[in-house]
Amino acid sequence: MYHSTFLMKYLSVIILHTKKILVDRARFFIWILVDTLGVIVLPFVWLAILGDRDMLLGFTRADIVTYFILVYVINLVATSHISEYVHADIMKGDLNKLLVRPIVPPLYHAMAQYGYKFVSLFVACAVCAIAITFFPEYISLPPTATHAFWFLFFLVFAGFHSSAIQIIVGLATFWLGETAALMQLRHVLEKIFSGEFGPLSLFPILIQAVGAWLPFQYLFFVPIQIYLGKLSGGEILSALFGMLFWSMMYLFIIIFLWRRGMRRYEGVGI
Amino acid sequence: MAYRGNFVLFFFLTMCESLVSFFVVVILYGHVQNIAGWEYQDMLLLTGTFMLSNGISWLIFKAGISDFDRVINAGDFDWYIIKPIDAQFLASVRRIDIDDTGRLVLGFIIIVMNFPSGDLLSSVVKILLYLFLFFCGQAVLYSILLALKTVTFKSIEGWATNAIAWRLQDLAQFPTDIYRGVVRIIYLFVVPLAFIVTVPAKALTGTLTIPLFFGAFAAAAGSLIISRMIWNKAVRGYSSASS
To answer: How far, rounded to the nearest angstrom, does the alpha carbon of residue B100 sit from its chain's CA centroid?
Structure first.
């Protein structure tokens, strides 16, 4: 009974924000356009690098185009921007309004983002359908149904990863006040080590070595490598353990920061 | 400069962010010697030009234009119209963002360190061409940003055009020679991003052609005229909410 009430609370947040997005369609399509513009140039860059070659370190032309279509899809359905909302709540005192409600404020913002992501999922499906229909020679499909399953599984956790890191950066507001520098640092690290710019396996060995120890690779690189069939069963299992480890770390850090932060927080004007 | 600590922090932050562009080039050229005819040194010149473009645009007009939706929504635009100075000029340069000078400095350093060697005369000619084409590119960029921002007169979602504008400028950090077909035509004639960074950089690499030179001037003049027309139309449709 308690669990169904808990789920219904946050499900209603998702539904509410889904409806909000459908009302505020202009804002939604503008952000879709922004996400599109963010990745549209990268396939051209890497295809220019590929040149007349058939393959670049194991990546064919189709692999490269598919890679960036999937980066776009993951950007639409998994990445979030919660840190700004958490930061604003703490700085402006809007956290007070959320604290008197039977919800956990960072979780509220995460669920609100999932409402937006739910609508974005349809756009992502439309993009994939167009790409497969009109440019089949540039699309690589997963080699087996197992790879497709694990890609979707890791996609869900990519969403969790993005939300968790954003929440952690947002909660740093309790101590730092202004977190623009931290947000920028997160942005730079994700840009380099997540695989958003290109497959990490094409990067210098040093970056690959550092990236292997960081969680950012689970946002784009690992799920897409699974989709393209470039990870063996053992490597997928290893990635699964790595992802579970980081998921536990995120939960621990968020709970720790939240509890410590609430001891420092002072809200006035309720 | 009242908050010098904040300025220093953002100065270094913007430099670090710009360094990502530099490292991207280093990573890309780990696999090839040449991308669409651009050698490593050429690409660094282009990257430096991109940083310069970003830095100077933030310093002069980008901050003012980005903030314009807040001005409209707060009803402050009325004060712009009644002043004895062009409202477009005032809206564009009202705010300068010196925090972004970090990009400018880094871009300048990269260009100086990779400036092609040659005799004094050819170097002077290259620099003069570069400066002329650079400011033509800034005129194109300014026109694109301003035209997008006029959405604010009609919609309270005008703030979102900031993200679109910044993304469009980010597209210019790679040479437009990598594009083919329709996409190339779009970047040359529809949204002339080619003239913002690629064409000025070609002046330094020695690959500038006469059509591109005159095309840059035409693109700058044309975009300024078109953006001015769009601005005038938007202001004519403006009805103050507060006066």
So the answer is: 13
User: How far is residue B120's CA from residue B107's CA, in Å, rounded to a whole number?
Assistant: 22
Nearest chain A residue (CA) to B160: A30
Nearest partner of A223 among A92, A123, A79, judged by Cα: A79
Amino acid at B119: D
Nearest CA in chain A to B10: A181
Residue partners of A239: CB distance under 8 A and separation at least 6: A154, A218, A222, A226, A231
Do B27 and A203 lie within an 8 Å CB cutoff? yes
Are B23 and B173 in contact by the 8 Å Cβ rule? The answer is: no
**CB-based contact, A41 to chain B, within 8 Å:** yes
- C-alpha distance from residue A259 to each of A145, A263, A264 (Å): 42, 7, 9
* ipTM given for this complex: 0.78
CB atoms within 10 A of CB A265: 15
Q: Which residue has the tokens 């539904």?
A: A15
- For the stretch B111-135, what's the b/e string if a residue is b when 16 or more beta carbons lie within 10 angstroms of its beta carbon? beebbeeeeeeeeeebeebbebbbe
- CA B101 – CA B105 distance, rounded (Å): 6
pTM: 0.85
Q: Mutate which of B7, B8, B18, B20 to test chain A, going by most A C-beta atoms within 10 A?
A: B20
Residues A185-228: pLDDT tens digits?
888 888 889 998 888 888 888 889 999 999 999 999 999 999 99
Rounded Cα–Cα distance for residues A160 and B193 (Å)? 36
